[in-house]
Amino acid sequence: MNRISSKHILFALSIFLFLLVPSLEAQEEDKVLTEIPLGDIKREEIQRYFGYENVLFRYLTVPYDSSINVNQQGRFVDIGFLLIAVFPLILLGLSFKNKKAFYSIIGLLTLYLLICLSNSLLITLEAYYPVVNDDWDIAIKPQYLSYTDQFLYHLYAFSESFMSPMIEYAKNNNALTSKITYGILFSIFLGLLYWSMSKVENFKKEKYLLIVFMSYFFLWMLLSGGIIWYGFLFIPLIILFIGIIFEQESLSRIYKNLIFTVLIIWTTTAIINRVSNIDVTVANYEEHYGKTIINGTIFPYAMGIFNEDQTIDYSTPNLSKALNKINADDELIYMVGTSFSFNIRNNLKRIFSDNALGNIWWIAKNYPDKSTQIDVLKQAGIKYMIIDLHTPSLDKTPEQSLTQKFQLLLNTLYQNPSVSLIGTDRIIEFIDSNGNQQKLANVFGEKILNPGSYAIYEIL
Fold first, then answer.
1. How far apart are CA 359 and CA 336, in angstroms?
2. Is beta strand 128-130 parallel, antiparallel or unpaired with respect to 121-123?
3. What gap in Å lies between CA 299 and CA 294, rounded to an integer?
4. Count of CB atoms within 10 A of residue 255's CB?
5. Under a CB-based contact definition with an 8 Å cutoff, are residues 402 and 391 in contact?
6. Residue 443: alpha-carbon gap to chain centroid
7. Is 386's pLDDT higher than 90?
8. Phi and psi torsions of 293, nearest 5°
9. How far apart are CA 24 and CA 16, in angstroms?
10. Are the C-beta atoms of residues 225 and 66 closer than 8 Å to each other?
11. 3-class SS string, 290-343
12. Alpha carbon distance 14, 16 (integer Å)
């Protein structure tokens, strides 16, 4: 009985990938939306990790975007720089003895970097700016940036200028680029896989593992939409892959030491960052540096200094009273975002989540009157509405569809006699009848002093 070789696997993989092309193309629709989409969760929730640029650049830049957190910022998507630091070093190391291949890889990596930077964000200490926005270089004042940020500014400006003809061509020929995207991706993948296998010495187990590793990485890049946690298997595979690379005699000692040094630096800085709990992406966070290692809310509760209501109000002002009212009965709850489910009794049966606001959009579209909109919710048995005031911050869509739907929800609640506000941490300022400035916890007001994070309404 003939044994299956790595070449057979490679051939079968090629056939499978090219058979996959039609189904993938059917999923790609770069439409210009003319109205707010009804509950388009894929576009608003999933694609915010993937990006909204042309489909070709959207796929090509996934490793870079996932490492730099271009499309979605936050600790929960931070994986360090393994994808954009270790891999290039490995490729250069494997081709070091072949000068032609070595310089070709340098050229390809440089082109890839320009593609990524031109579709990325210029992140400074003050803010971040989309490079693809025509006004990004006007909004930034280079003379006020730090030396590091000034260097990045000019690097991004060059990348945007250099790649603008290709970006414009892809934008103007969207149908064509959508059709050729998967052919380009599969060709790159199969070319890299074949080249990598030719560099690995004749050990069949290592070649099989190389096929598994690169196939998994490619399928993650192709199908995950840039979502990191869909690639958890990638962590043990990358450790095995690096082990294989270190065993290759073709990889010089200099590059082995360089890769090892990069891994040590990344691991050390990642541990320090996690332990210190410093989030440099949050504006005006300097006063909290190094102070959030210990949770200032949980410890007083554990020591008996705070009771449950005090602990809740310490972390989220004015919340405990509203939660106590909600937990006093078993009425249904309409919820948009927030993490309050944990504090609500019998939450599995009571909470109806509408994070993408598709249902409120449908109600507002079919029932223009605000009181009727609330009556629809009331007839459905809903008594309370819990709303995350940060919902628009999740909206990365070019047409800002989620933001528009959130504004519809606010319009429904504004001065509506059918609802009553029972809790919020937003603080507004208003002028009372005597002409004095007053502060009040409310969602709507003349001036917002503290934007807050939540609002809880009772349907009357």
1. 11
2. antiparallel
3. 8
4. 18
5. yes
6. 28
7. yes
8. -65, -40
9. 12
10. no
11. CCCCCCCCHHHHHCCCCCHHHHHHHHCCCHHHHHHHHHCCCCEEEEECCCHHHH
12. 5
Query: 319: which residues sit within 8 A by CB, 6+ positions away?
Result: 312, 313, 340, 423, 425, 454, 456
**Alpha helices, DSSP H, located in 28-146:** 41, 55-60, 62-68, 87-94, 99-118, 136-139
CA distance 7 to 88: 25
Reading the block at residue 40, the tokens are 């388009």
167: Cα separation from own chain's centroid = 23
> Of the spans 31-35, 45-49, 208-212, 346-350, which averages the highest pLDDT?
346-350
Distances (CA, A) of 13 to 6, 18, 209, 234: 10, 9, 14, 19
- SS3 per-residue string spanning 185-205: HHHHHHHHHHHHHHHCCCCHH
Q: What does the alpha-carbon distance between residue 130 and residue 136 come to, in Å, rounded to a whole number?
A: 6
End-to-end CA, the chain:
76
Q: Helix or strand or coil: residue 375?
A: helix
H-only helix segments in 5-54: 6-27, 41
What does pTM read for this prediction? Answer: 0.73
- From CA 460, how far away is CA 450, in angstroms rounded? 27
Q: Is the pLDDT of residue 280 over 60?
A: no
Please name the residue that has the structure tokens 């009181």. 371
Tokens coding 88:
């290039």
- Nearby residues of 188 by Cβ (< 8 Å), 6 or more positions away: none
| pLDDT confidence of residue 23 | 47
d(C-alpha 379, C-alpha 351), whole Å: 15
Residue 6: how many CA atoms within 13 Å on its side-chain side? Answer: 20
In the numeric block, the tokens 């409310």 are attached to 442
Q: Residue 313: what are its φ and ψ, rounded to 5°?
A: -70, -25
